[in-house]
Here is the input.
Amino acid sequence: MARRLAPADVALLAELVGLRFPTEDLAPLAEALDAHLAFVAPLLQADLDDVNPSLTHDPRWRD
Amino acid sequence: MRERKLSAVELVEATLRRIDETEPVVHAYVHVAAQQALAAARRADAEVPRGPLHGIPIGIKDVLATRDAPTEAGSRLLAGFTTSHDATVVRRLREAGAVIIGKQVTHEFACGQDVPPTRNPWNLRHYPGGSSAGGGVSVAVGSSLGALGTDAGGSVRKPAAVTATVGLKPTHGRVSGWGTIRAASAPSLDHVGTFTRSVEDAALLLQAVAGYDPADRRTIDEPVPDYLADLNRGVAGLRLGVAPGYFAGPELHPEVGALVEGAFKELERFGATLVPVELPAFRFTLPAGFVILMAEVAQPHRRWLVERPKDYVAGTRRLLELGSLVPAAHLQAAHCARMAMRAEVQAAFRHARLDAMVTPTLPITSMALDEMVVDRDLPRLIPFTLPWNLTGLPALSVPCGFTPAGLPAGLQVVGRPLDEATILRIGHAYEQATPWHRQRPALAGAGAR
Here is the structure.
């Protein structure tokens, strides 16, 4: 089972991206971030190595 | 109005009376611009009509800038915020002669929290859709004759589907988003769209607002066609893709599925051919869409999250905090998944020689507000609308019937890039043969209209 995020982990992550969240928010935020990362985990497991990221907004198709 | 049997002032006065009747019940507006609208109507009556929108009262989602009314994005953080300019789409509406009747409810920063609640006129206990909640509701009850909203994951088509109105999300770049509050927008997913009572009205509104805008680098410099020209050509001979592998999975409620299946059969009866296609990369829709959406909308909130966290609705703040912490690996993978989806749908259109695709707009219909948990239910609402924000393709929601409980459902028609004309044509053909778009909710205390 994957390690679950602790409030201190979230505080550190926030600090690394230049943010600071109220202390009382850290525990529920850790839980929500865990749930979010589990939800989007299939993206990291998918075989997308040969796909370039979408770097343009232009939706027109080019042959 | 062209024949001068009804003046713009009379129409605006009637709309203001309808707002007075319905607002205590549905709460679709945050600001009614009565005096400005009446002044604009008087000017319209003094002019030679400019076109079909001349003197028509239109509502504007409260994330689009208007020079004569506050733009607060549904948030205490922007209380009283005013601009000296109109969003490009608002300016274009005014130039077409339309009258801006007021600013309509948005969820806070378009982030999904229906606080304070707007009500669904088909059942006042039920969710009205969002984030452009006010637009769908006001058009449904007749407190505006059309409305502009924004749609980054379904925020126009979702309220349209649950209020039995017509919602159009054009191709990304077909309509300028300049003047949208940045803090309420995910720029690569966001589109300005329309709410109307009919597909023909959607074509008229799109005609007025579409086109290249040098102020918005996302817009595409291509000619805007006449959206009414082919509206009556019907669907005979068109090939319409269906993808049951994604759009008819277990999440599709049987009552909604039956209504949409009925709509498919109608289109076949009019001469369209349904063509099954496979879209396996669409399984990435929700994870990729949420990662991109959250990261893009969170970015401009960094300072407010630190300095004014308590001014947010709690659910909005949580979404933005999470969006601020999205790892780069996930974001990059999401952009790869998005590109895979684009390539796949392009291949499907080409190989199956499709003119459009048809899907349910939503897998479920509106749920009771007191049973709704936004974090849990938002992903259940948008799996069929969000793919077209990720791919940028134009998508139209038209009413396709009512469940036994009397709640509306929507049929979604999706087109090739910049081919709004074909999806409008398909939606119009369906609408002409069905009664759904003419049905009106009977509001207790306000009546139907």
In short: Residues 294 and 319 of chain B are 7 Å apart (CA to CA). Chain B has a mean pLDDT of 95.
